[in-house]
Amino acid sequence: MSDLVFNPFGFLHHDDPYVTYKRMRDEAPLYWNDELKFWALTRFADVQEGFRDTGLLSSAGGIALENRRPIGQSMGFDQFIEFDPPEHTVLRKLVSRVFTIRTVAKMEDEIRRIFRGYLEQIVPRGSSEVVGDLTSPYPMDVISAVLGVPPEDRDHLRVSSDKIMIRTDGVLEIPPAAAEGMLGLVEYFMEDLPKRKAGEGSGLINDLVGYEVDGRALTDEELLGFCVLFVIAGHETTTKMVANVLELLSRHPEQKAAVAADLDLVPGVIEEVLRFHNSTQYMHRTLTRDHEMYGQQMKAGDSVLLVIGAANHDEREFGPTAEEFDIFRRPERHLAFGYGAHFCLGAALARMEGKIAVEEIFRRIPDYEVDHDAKVRFHSSNVTGWRSLPITFPTREAAAV
Known about the structure:
The protein has one domain: CATH 1.10.630.10. Strands 1-2-10-7-3 form a 5-stranded mixed β-sheet. The chain has a 3-stranded antiparallel β-sheet with strand order 4-14-11. A two-stranded antiparallel sheet has the order 5-6. The longest helix has about 30 residues, at about 220-250. The protein is built from 17 helices and 14 strands. Strand 1 and strand 2 form a beta hairpin. It has helices at about 15-25, 45-50, 85-95, 100-105, 110-120, 130-135, 135-145, 155-165, 175-195, 205-210, 220-250, 255-260, 265-275, 310, 315-320, 345-365, 395-400, and strands spanning about 30-35, 40, 55-60, 125-130, 210-215, 215, 280-285, 290-295, 295-300, 305, 370, 375, 385-390, 390.
């Protein structure tokens, strides 16, 4: 087992991290990286329990390995994803009503209009780099519409959000480009929030200004944290998810043909892609007390990675075909959106965005082909997907609605 090395910096942009994940589940379900000083959990039941037990595994020490810090140490503004209950529960109540399945369903026509607008631009061309043309601007427009960000500001937020996720191969420290991206978002909303407080604009940000839950309003730092988090989470995960759908289906032509013949399969496609190749591969937690597991002694303050990508391929949960991509699988559950108190608030919105994008693509350009020689992976410590995904398609077929 000495040759088993899991280092997320320079790891997730490789072709097949799931081979290493399988070895970890089989040989080292509790893995210790002595160089970077973290534990990693890889089996479904362990990762699920890690999400559930917020008393043992805290989010308050940062949710990414490169951002870890002592529990409770602030970055200058507070993001509720890095709070633990009960504080997290109070803040979650503020926005949960906006992201319910019923509320999101009311947004379907607008979301579909946004995606069609981008799709119509590429249909006559017969080719596209779908990340830049479709899957990146589309979710930014959606989350911006929810927040009330003006159209003229959305490109700036998208570029800043993309930069935040950039990491350097094999390097733990956050690179200057990522810091620049975060600064861009923070500065934008620091200028924007006073305008919202003065009554300008509309959208979720305006709703949050001055809103109270259980007798208290959000602080300025919490408001800033909400805005930054919504842009990053609302943009990055959907960008990667939709591109992952197109890439995976292109490598499974029988399943791709089945989707083209029956768009009712699309929700199942989304769930299987979320399971098989989820954009978020791990979440970082910090141990609040000493704990023994698999015969090893873990200490308070240790870093623990909940490796979602490994858990979602666990044969103990998904059976002997767990390593296979199968849109007919219909998994009863997976951990792509986390679990428990921190289950992703935007899950319903992300599913809706994915469903609409895949439906519209298969209505207009069902015969698309991916240029696998030219595709480029996104490089990050905990996010995986495609930075560039070129496709071609017959313009004759594309012209027929």
